[in-house]
Amino acid sequence: MNVPPTSTLREGRAVIARGIKGQPRWFALAVVGSVVYGVMTSLTAAAIGFVVERAVAPAIAAGHVTASQLWFIGGVMAAVVLTTIVGVIGRRIAGGVAMFNLGAMYRRQVTRQYLRLPLSWHHRHPSGQLLSNANADVEATWNIFAPLPMALGVVVMLVFGIVQMVIVDPWLALVGLTVFPMLFLANVAFQRAMSPRVTRAQQLRADVSEVAHESFEAALVVKSLGREDHEAERFRVVTHELRDANIEVGRTRGRFDPAIEAIPTIGTLAVLFVGTLRVSSGQLTAGQVVQVAYLFSILAFPVRALGWVLAELPRAVVGWKRVSAVLDATGSMTFGDRSLPSGAASHLQAERLAYAYEIESETGEPDLNPAVVDVTLDVAPGATVAIVGPTGSGKSTLTNLVMRLVDPDSGAVLVDDVDLREVRRGGVSDVAALVAQQTFMFDDTVRGNITLGAERDDESVWRALDVAQGAGFVGRLPDGLETHVGERGASLSGGQRQRIALARAVIREPQLLILDDATSAVDPSVEQAILARLREASSGTTVLVVAYRMATILLADEVVYMEGGRVVDHGSHDALLGRCLGYERLVTAYAREAAEREAIAAAEEHDEHGRGADAAEEVSR
Amino acid sequence: MSMRSQVLVEHHGVATGKEMTTWQTLRRGVELSPELRKGIWVTVLLAVLSTLGRVLVPFVVQRITDNGLLAEGGPDTQVVAVYIGIALVGVAVTAVSAYFVNIRLFRSSENGLATLRLRAFRHIHDLAMLTQNTERRGSLVSRVTSDVDTISMFVQFGGLMLLINLAQISLATVLMVVYSPLLALVVWLCFVPLFVIIRKFQGIVGRAYTKVRERVGDMLGAISEAVVGAQAIRAYGVEDRTAERIDAAVEAHRKAAIGAQARSVVAFTSGQLVSGLTTAVVLVVGTVLAAGGSLTLGELLAFLFLVNLFTQPVQQATEILNEMQNAVAGWRRVIGIIDTPADVSDPGDAGVTLPRGPITVQFNEVGFAYPGGAPVLHDIDLTIAPRSRVAIVGETGSGKSTLAKLLTRLMDSSSGHVLLDGVDLRTIRFSSLRSRVVLVPQEGFLFDGTLLDNLRFGRPEASEQDVRLTLTELGLDPWVATLPLGLATAVGQRGESLSAGERQLVALARAYLADPDLLVLDEATSAVDPSTEVRIQRALDSLTRGRTSIAIAHRLSTAQAADEVIVVDAGRIVERGHHTELVRLGGVYSKLHESWVAQQQAV
To answer: Tell me, what's the ipTM?
Structure first.
């Protein structure tokens, strides 16, 4: 047993207290309902006794029954039933509302954290697990509020029942009461045995979700490489682990459940036995014994509600631990209160930036993988600077630093002489816009994906789309701007998504525009048109553009060439061509290739021509 | 939803299973999880045994009261002792059989549901690509996770209790009839309205739970945006708007859940209400009967006790039937996905296995239209010779990617046939097809693991030596050397520790290592820098000699290197031939080429 019961009980109490604090009114209402239910249930026996004594017995004795007697019998019983029902409805509905409100409350809190925590935190946490935290774990935490009000009502009911028993006969009550400590001990032992098993099952549930999530996201790759069997096997392993864990939970439950169920029955029998002896010795009447025995049999079932709460406790504690790990996560970005000046193109400076990703080394120790090393930039207002470099040279990381999606390990990014770390939350995206290499589409309309909720008229949306060369295809969509693009823009092609993402940036008329290879999925002709329109539209804008292609590079006033996270050289395109070998190789790759191909093709053509002539000769012979 | 995707849902979408009745759902569910039925009779027998024990105890208690405590001439201790002995035996029998019932149920249900999970998971991968794309990924995940979990809750607790309750109801009815047939009839008459109400509420509660399950899917979709779109959200400072969207989904789920709860509470309390009122009616009618002398007071009280024995299981059954609706809602969604036909299906053992070797590709009058949409491809006739390197070019939306998807059988053509080595694609076994034809998509998904694991994904038996050899052949070893741990580098979630260009390099090498005879590259190097791209292009040139390769690209450097260029425009093949010929032709291709050259003009 790796989880001591006292700590689960203590932590469980803390979770419950937190929940009550979150929904005090609905919880109170549920408890009131539950108390009404509890009191009325333990009064049912008394009500029957009362009715029998007042109406039934006299009627039988008299040999005939009057209408008023019948109304009395029916009325009293109906009143008891209706009051009980009101209690049940109150308990269940208010309890449900409290539970679902708590779930919604904590889902909001957890997702607020997802939005608040920095990108580096996201990189460390699998998305399948994060979804599980916001869904299954929140649910597991607050599920306990379903049986909890009932359990509290049962406590009241027990007190009520015990008082009734003591009034009838203290000795008999004492016999009965020995049952309750036994029940409690059995439940504690039960809960103690369940705790580690439930914890394991909950973790495996998240694992199953993680594998399924990753595998379905990879559906196209799985299909095109024909790896369905392999994926099914990977899923089978976790599924069977979960199955075995659940069977283990069931086995534990199977051991305790029947015992816990038998204890109240044994108590009833004990009461009857002792009662009979006391009746024999004349200390009690038979009626009194029957009343106590009846009370007992009525109380036996609801007492199990206490057991349910104890059984739910480990799950709630585990769920809460996983939820609070998100809620307590720190390392958030800090923001200042300064705003960036608006109205004119921004002046962008980077001073000796360095950034390294955290990775795990072969021994599992955390290690650092430098992506940007000692990068200094100075982009004059209104200038266009191209960042060029081979794949994996740190260009995208640099754009993330400039946009303050991540903070540098050392050095600083200044926009109009303001350190980005001193800018208020949202201040950077007010003046700057980034079009990332990998576009992200929201499950929303085309318009929603462009305006992102800002008030914009149709005209400006179309204008932005026009610059991004997207007006044509959007116009052909069935609902135009109101067309839903589906999850992650599934109904659009890669090139269409990129153009919507460009329009998203353009419509904001940013003072600083950062394009990270933002036209990789569009045709050369479309790309040409986009670049031409951008040049017109971005006259008051400072542009930082990650580019491979000559047409894009030629737009730039200055080129910065990076390799291995460092700036190797910078200057005009012509200057770099002359003095930077890596740069020259990179940007002239296509042209050199084309020239070579043409030379080879010309040679082949010459050959083929010769051969063709030979063949013709052969035919003529 | 766009018309295209709307239509997809109608024609290609996942069956919701909504049209299945509760009974059909349960039957189909058991059919899909045969373990649920295995040995069920032994379990039922044990359950009946444990019920007998449960009924025996209150019955004995009543006897003790009647014959022992209230015996004429004072309490009879001996009778009491005997009965208590009998009751204890009953308790022991109940406990032991309940133990076995519990364990058997957990084992069979967990086994059955694991089977269901695996079947649904596998089937989701077997579904046609178009069908997969009509569903949110989160919603697909919930079909193999939380939907199955709701079923297990019901099968393990509800299903058994329902059986026990039915047994107890029958037993109590028999006992009531023995005591007083007339009062027994009264009890049953009182319950008739309840049975009507329950039937009606089943539908209402069922619909409410179905709605809840749908809202869970919406909510997961909204939350996943905050996780997967973390970068975009921060770059545009739209945290507040995203929060609002999530809150709306969370709120819709909360409302649906409370709505379902309220409905099930009403359904449940109707059972309790009828039970309570029945007791009242029995007391009233019983008093009349007793006053008439056909019943003693003792018998009336004993009968009341039996009524309790009857109403308790009825109440519990009402509640379980409500919970069953929750399970049925989940079950319907899982069955819905399993019963969605895999439109593009594997012919399996009946299919043809192609021998290895360079592949000839043929398109015979192939046409394609998205379901309900306008045709995207018209009458494509095309033969691609083995060992040739073909580039397919065309403007965005011309249908070139559709060709690639038909060729790799991610979709089936609407008309005409695609043939590989003269064999209709539809008759080729998937195991043969997938090992011979591999597509490298533009955004190649990487798994959260090491670089080595990802490279080996298409051919797990490849040794590290094979992997290194492939990387060398493709000229990628210098790149791997720059990674902190080389092949052992972890690529992160979805490969996000690598840049987009690096992910494409991995995807390409992964496909290459799988050693297909036909390699289809769909914009597979769009995010890679030019000199690396040219290097890979050259490597592929020399390496693809033994195989057929088809590349879809808008960077015309690829087209220049190809043996043949196929130009697609508005769904038709308009030009084909070698790069130099097409440039001279002065048609669509030469225009594309012009703008390409314009981009390179400075050099």
So the answer is: 0.86
